[in-house]
Amino acid sequence: MTALSNWVPSLDGEQTLGEAYAEMPGDDASVVPWYVRLLENPASPVALPGAIDLRGHDCVHIVFGRGTTSADEAFVLGVTMGSTGRAAGWQRQVFALAARHLYRGPWRLSERDVLLFHLAVEFIRQQGVQPLNAVRWDDLWDEPLKKIRSSLGIRVPELLRFFETERLLWPDSLAASRLPTVAHRDE
Questions:
Q1: Does pLDDT of 186 surpass 50?
Q2: Of 8, 48, 52, 187, which sits with the fewest C-beta atoms within 10 Å of its C-beta?
Q3: Closest CA to 132 of 115, 113, 114, 152
Q4: Quick one: which of 82, 62, 179 has its CA closest to 124?
Q5: What's the rounded Cα separation, in Å, for the pair 70 and 5?
Q6: Do residues 93 and 71 lie in contact, with contact meaning Cβ atoms separated by under 8 Å?
Q7: Which long-range contacts (CB under 8 A, 24 or more apart) does 22-30 make?
C-alpha cells in the first residue's frame, strides 16, 4: 500500500470517485487534532466557511489531483473555503494565523503554504465552482471524475495553468514537482 505522504491522485477523468478513494491511503479521523477540528469541522460551533467532513475533504484532494503534502493541504483548504463565496478576509486571516502558529506537526502550514492557500482561495473564486463543502460526495461515488469536475464547474485547463504557476513560483517544492501537467484520458 502507498504511504499517505507518497500518494498523489492523477487527473484521470475515467476513474470513478469511489475507485480513486479506494486507492487513497489514510488515517482515521480520530488522529485529527482538536485545533484542526475546531476550525475545519462543520460540527464545530466556530467552524470557518468551507468546513467539511474528512471524507469530503479527501474527495476534494481527489477531484483536484492533489496529494497530501502541507502545500497540497493548503491548496485543498483554500479551494474549499474559497468556493463558498462567504470567506471574508478576516476569516482567511484567522485560518492562516491558526495554521501557521497553532497547528502542530503535519497540520502546520509554512509561510509558503499560507501564500498558496490565499492563491487557491482567489483562484477558485474566479472559477465560479460550486461550494465544495456542500457537495453530496456519496451521491457521486460511482460517477467518473471527469463528469464530477464538469458538474462542479472545475475547468481542468485552468487548473493545469494554476499548477504551472505554482511550479514556477516554487520550483523546489515537492508538491509542485508532483502536480499533474496534463489531464489523462481526454479530461
A1: no
A2: 8
A3: 152
A4: 82
A5: 10
A6: no
A7: 24/58, 24/61, 24/62, 25/1, 26/58, 29/54
pLDDT at 4: 59
- Grid cell digits, residue 180: 499533474
pLDDT at residue 42 tops 90: yes
The residues near 104 (Cβ < 8 Å, ≥ 6 apart) are 33, 35
Q: Which three cell numbers stand for residue 38?
A: 475546531
| The pLDDT of residue 3 is above 70 | no
Do residues 32 and 52 lie in contact, with contact meaning Cβ atoms separated by under 8 Å? no
> Which residue is listed with cell 486507492?
23
Q: What is the pLDDT of residues 114-166, one digit of tens each?
A: 999 999 999 999 999 999 999 999 999 999 999 999 999 999 999 999 999 99
Residue with cell 473564486: 125
